[in-house]
Design a protein that fits this description.
Order of helices and strands: HHHH
Number of strands: 0
Largest sheet: none
Oligomer: single chain
Strand content: under 5%
Helix content: over 70%
């Protein structure tokens, strides 16, 4: 889909469910890489001002990030292997390698 858009440029409009999915994933990735670090940074600064410390806010933000990552990992394991429902909403944060693995496993299981 991306190669097709590059080949035709701005001369043609590409639509359909595949194009919508590509656009949604691209917007999700961009928002995730901008918004999540920005929110964490603002929260870190606020905690530093309120607690008047440096180490405690770093530990607090670090534990929140670690617990979020653990929750996402456990949820992915349960949905992929227990419920046999691979794939996730594009708005759910995941790494690019997980996205390619997820689409490969979806293709394999649907064959």
């Amino acid at each position: 889909m991306r190669e097709l858009r590059t080949a035709v440029g701005d001369e043609a409009l590409v639509g359909g469910t595949t194009a919508t999915a590509v656009d949604t994933e691209a917007a999700s990735i961009r928002d995730r890489t901008l918004i999540i670090p920005l929110v964490l940074l603002v929260i870190l600064v606020i905690l530093m001002l309120l607690l008047r410390a440096i180490v405690a806010p770093l530990l607090l933000v670090g534990t929140v990030v670690l617990s979020f990552a653990a929750t996402m990992g456990v949820a992915a394991l349960v949905f992929n292997h227990v419920f046999q429902m691979p794939g996730a909403d594009p708005a759910v944060p995941s790494s690019d390698s997980c996205s390619s693995w997820r689409s490969a496993s979806t293709t394999t299981s649907s064959s």
